[in-house]
Amino acid sequence: MRLITHNMLKCHVKNCTDPDKQFPLRFKDVQLEQIDAERNDEFLVRMLPRIDWPALSKTTKELDITLPETVPGNPEDDEEFLQALHTAILETHIKQGSMLCDGCGHEYKITNGIPNMLLAEHEI
Amino acid sequence: MGLSTPSTSHLSQSKYDSVYEPAEDTYLLLDALENDQSQIQEQAPTVCVEIGSGSGCVSAFLAKVLDPHSALVLSTDINPAAALATQETIASNDCSNCVSDQIRTRFTQSMDSRLCGSIDILLFNPPYVVTPTEEIDVTSEASAWAGGKHGREVLDLLLPNVAHMLAPRGRFYLVVIEQNKPDDILELLQRDGLLGERILSRKAGREHLSILRFIKK
After folding, report:
1. Is-above-0.80 flag for pTM?
2. What is the pLDDT of residue B1?
3. Neighboring chain A residues of B137 at a CB cutoff of 8 Å
4. Which segments of chain B have a pLDDT < 50?
5. For all residues of chain A together, what is the average pLDDT?
6. Which residues in chain B touch residue A42, judged by CB atoms under 8 angstroms apart?
């Protein structure tokens, strides 16, 4: 799972609704892998509005990945920004580990790069 | 036809025994996507989601339909073997133009609020077979095809959310059989402001399959 996908995941346990706590999910004991991918600036710029930047910023800090605090005014012309964004959201894969919800403590496991977001009956 | 069907030969491995193998319903959906290739390319989707990806054949094919355009393709399935199969199918077919990830979940659960109003292409080949309600989800295999009353019980959980999940100009492609009452589905989603059409039909054995396509204004 890439960080771009992690940026879409929120805790959905019943009654866990504090937006500041249920998203982004906090990584725990994760195994990361950097896999090179061809950069597509047109796609990055198109994807930008869909990204929750504060969440991405928080997550990359937790993983010691460099990313600017804010999106520059002209991202399409900012080579350094685009490269950092590309590496962070598309080349960083989380292979194993788990994601914790700061709100309710639920732990979602990641196996073979696939997060398990299914909940038990009582949590729905 | 122009685009080649993604290879899924790796499904012969025993770890994928519970995964639904591509069949006539799968191929009909591929044909529908290929027929719409120029429209889809013109739409230039950014976020695509396949619910119940099974083998991953459709998600992989979508990447080919989009090529050379790039999009985020998220494939979901409740069956972990299917999520893994999808991952392998994407990896063994050239889908490098797209960014593809798999999530083990029901529908788009856990991503609903982030993807709300943001899905450009939504694909679903649901468990559509008419069965007793009790057979739904009873095993991993059954979860792929058991659809309960009118084969609609699983689909009916998704339908009320489709319109608001789609982005403006977003598209929803759905596989149905006649017993699912397609006209009823078309009417339901029309009430939510989606323009629906039966775009392809085919008889496969005793199943009269159709692809319904919905477009949001």
Report:
1. yes
2. 53
3. none
4. none
5. 96
6. 70
Question: Distance from B104 to chain A by nearest Cα, in Å?
Answer: 5
CA distance A118 to chain B (A): 5
Which of A117, A121, A124 is the mutation pick for testing B, counting most B CBs within 10 A?
A117
Tokens of A89: 């959201």
Residues B151, B131 contacting (CB under 8 angstroms):
yes
- Answer yes or no: is the ipTM higher than 0.95: yes
Q: How far apart are CA A24 and CA B124, in angstroms?
A: 27
pLDDT value of residue B193: 97
